[in-house]
Write a structure and sequence with these properties.
- By secondary structure, the chain is α+β, with helices and mostly antiparallel strands.
- It has 2 domains: 191 residues, no CATH class; 72 residues, Alpha-Beta Plaits (2-Layer Sandwich).
- Strands 2-3-1-4 form a 4-stranded antiparallel sheet.
- Helix 2 packs parallel to helix 7.
């Protein structure tokens, strides 16, 4: 039974990437694209070229993501990029095959519900340790080092892009509705994905050295304390580490892979004083 749970836990994030990609594609092709509205970031750039030159938005989105994902691989790690690659490939495929249908002639409705769908589709991958690619990767890198809300960073990046495109296209109605859509997406991302919030994990394990070595590679500082169980009087090591909600899923995966019987207590951290991130030197 435990093996099946472990397998499901390993496959689960990839399923979330695909489902999130489907939500993004539905938001684009059923609401934003028919209303000639823009998404932000690389997808917004892809839409502009698609509207102006008639090029395939899906393939433009795919090509523009490649250098960003390479940067993310260098900074955020292989697992993040592996999940992100699945997400953006799935998004490209869904964008190619989901038909562009005009569900509503009301641009306000299209911007609101399109923004909600894209926000859900972008937040789910971020919550499970990946991203939908593009500006999400850039925002994740900045958020990781500056502890800023990812959704807010995405809104700032994307608003700048849409504003610049508004000057180019002179369609300010589309630009303003697009900014509303981007704002709603960013709010949903910050509600679901909160990497700037910190938690403290207390881990009781018999594999303290191996587990500490894996946690230090994140990189995070780890404190090891000697403890003794009140019921059994058996001695254990207790590992204490402060991490972000963004990295909590990875911490769970590491603990399960090394010591499935470990006892883990995760509590909300109000503030961190001192160096939060362990130096990589």
């Amino acid at each position: 039974m435990l093996q099946w749970k472990d397998k499901l836990a390993g496959v689960g994030p990839y399923i979330v990437m695909v489902l999130g990609a489907a939500a993004v594609a539905l938001g684009f092709n059923l609401l934003l694209v028919p209303a000639k509205l823009l998404s932000g970031g690389l997808s917004g750039i892809s839409m502009i070229f698609g509207y102006v030159f008639g090029w395939k938005i899906a393939w433009l989105y795919f090509a523009l993501n490649l250098p960003i994902l390479y940067w993310g691989w260098r900074v955020l790690g292989k697992r993040f990029i592996a999940l992100s690659v699945v997400s953006f490939i799935a998004t490209s495929v869904f964008l190619q095959f989901v038909p562009v249908l005009l569900l509503t002639n009301d641009r306000l409705l299209a911007s609101v519900f399109g923004g909600v769908l894209v926000g859900i589709g972008s937040a789910a991958p971020l919550r499970w340790g990946g991203s939908s690619g593009g500006v999400d990767v850039v925002a994740s890198i900045v958020s990781r080092w500056r502890n800023a809300p990812t959704g807010l960073l995405i809104v700032i990046f994307n608003t700048a892009i849409v504003a610049a495109m508004g000057f180019v296209t002179r369609d300010w109605n589309a630009a303003l509705y697009s900014m509303l859509s981007i704002y709603l997406s960013g709010r949903i991302i910050d509600i679901v994905h909160t990497p700037h919030r910190k938690v403290t994990a207390f881990i009781v394990t018999k594999h303290s050295q191996e587990l500490a070595a894996r946690l230090l590679a994140i990189p995070r500082g780890v404190t090891i304390l000697k403890t003794r169980g009140a019921y059994t009087s058996e001695e254990h090591d207790l590992l204490m580490t402060v991490t972000s909600l963004f990295e909590l899923a990875e911490l769970r995966r590491i603990v399960r892979s090394i010591d499935p019987k470990a006892f883990v207590n995760v509590v909300q951290t109000v503030d961190v004083i001192g160096e939060f991130r362990r130096s990589s030197r």
